[in-house]
Specification:
The structure is a homodimer.
Chain A lengths: L4 H10 L8 E3 L6 E3 L5 E11 L10 H18 L3 E11 L4 H17 L3 E9 L3 E11 L14 E5 L4 H6 L7 H8 L5 H7 L5 E4 L4 H10 L4 E5 L7 H7 L4 H13 L6 E5 L4 H10 L4 E8 L3 E5 L5 E2 L14
Parallel strand pairs in A: 4-5, 9-12
Antiparallel strand pairs in A: 1-2, 3-6, 4-6, 7-10, 7-11, 8-10, 9-11, 12-13
Chain lengths: ~325, ~325
Amino acid sequence: MTESEFDIIRHYFTDRQSRRADVVAGIGDDAALLHVAPGSELVVCMDTLVAGVHFPESTTAAAIGHKALAVNLSDLAAMGAEPAWATLSLTLPASHPDWLKAFADAFFALADSHGVQLVGGDITRGPLAVTVQAHGFVPAGQALRRRGARPGDRVCVTGTLGDAGLALHEGVSVPASLQARLDFPQPRIDAGLALRGYASAAIDISDGLLADLGHLLEHDGLGAALQVDALPRSDAFLAGLQPLGTEAEVLFYELPLSAGDDYELCFTIPEKRHNEAERRLAEIACDCTVIGVIEELSGIRCYRDDGERYHPVSSGYRHFNEAG
Amino acid sequence: MTESEFDIIRHYFTDRQSRRADVVAGIGDDAALLHVAPGSELVVCMDTLVAGVHFPESTTAAAIGHKALAVNLSDLAAMGAEPAWATLSLTLPASHPDWLKAFADAFFALADSHGVQLVGGDITRGPLAVTVQAHGFVPAGQALRRRGARPGDRVCVTGTLGDAGLALHEGVSVPASLQARLDFPQPRIDAGLALRGYASAAIDISDGLLADLGHLLEHDGLGAALQVDALPRSDAFLAGLQPLGTEAEVLFYELPLSAGDDYELCFTIPEKRHNEAERRLAEIACDCTVIGVIEELSGIRCYRDDGERYHPVSSGYRHFNEAG
């Protein structure tokens, strides 16, 4: 602990910034001064990751730096927003240069790839935790919202589900590709932008499909029928299940339905716009799977290919209800 | 722990919101949707308070709820910004309704008094910590900045200094008024607004006068001469020193110079505008004291009334250098 808070900020965070034209003043004053273009709405979200709660204590600094920003960019993606700025509050038990360098390198690699400038924040001493706020823009009135789904709309998800959940599952020998899904989730910014004007509602899957789709549905008092055999599963996920014997049969459904941390988008599309939306996602090489349909009757009903009901064991991650 | 994260958010935070017309969508989606009026710059700051670091473990929930927002509004005040929105990340070891109610009551009391709407955030489980981001507006180009002071400018502070520091000082029997300065700092929003167009530079005093004035000076490579007998001290502060004997002589200077947590504004005013600025502050019943003058020579030099140099013992709070 030889560096002061101010030196840490300067060394690892301030001096390496790329600059956006809409940042009038970034780090280095009491607050950042920012320009929002007329006609744009500002989109703002904030998420905190706490060691031992949101990531295992063994998580690398690089994974923490990436993920803290990624989970927020994922929220912007779910709104169809274009990312612009971030602020970072980093609480650290001690100041280790190697750790800070790895954290900052990963944070800025993701930020740079999405044109995001870090404009402020705070470094404090305490138990390891990271809070990031992300800011983005949407043309006024064009944000994707959780509300807006209608009966008959297709329920879709991007990418594959359950990968991060399997990486977290005890006793699993985790292949690198699943560990990367857990540690370095890729926010679906491009998909969110592509879905503006097509999706009737959208949310990102951070707490698990059932929980997050539930949030989407509750806004309009609707329900959904899901085809649980149709849930998109990666080859690595299927291969990872193989050695698990009878448990694999449960996890095959439960992880894609209920495990968090995948950071895919779940969205609804009116039937007549579905082909067009799928084409737009294909143009940006984003896989999209129809997994169900919106229904009038509230609640989520799961069905197997043979038409039998499937009754999920759990329904998503809740910080204050479960062991976590 | 009977309430889920979502119920907590709803019960203590979402359902009591006052509404601003510029909030298109607040809590309840993946992100907030906000409108920034053309011609305004967005002012954004973020501060984290960690139990045991930024406040004693014994601090009441009300004090934590107030202070977490107040320290951020103080940053907005230092920019001359009008507050608008806040986001809140609350990390809690457990969910106790009494604690949450007291925290939320104090948070919203301060928010309401400044027209601030809570537009988003996060509640997570973990060691007690609170991160708040505050958002405000200034007319484009009119923000108060840390840079901008010129040699000859008067150095001024609002209110009194050292009160919170004395409340934190071990062995002091703390009168209620000093404890309130520590627990319920009042951000100088009105003073910041009044100083737009008058102050050449401004900063809020969170880490101690010497440290924060130092930040202001370093932007322009300037220095200052301070009159340490002229530092504004409250009656409660002077009374609190009385029983401390010889230590009081040291604390009389050291606390106003180096103790943090007062959240007054330190600003510079060109000599010819000083009377007018003081009159504007008097109109809003804000005390203002000239404590020194900006000089070409970098560094801060302290003088007693008799013209002798005073050499401060410490120079401000640094999280990673000192025991805290």
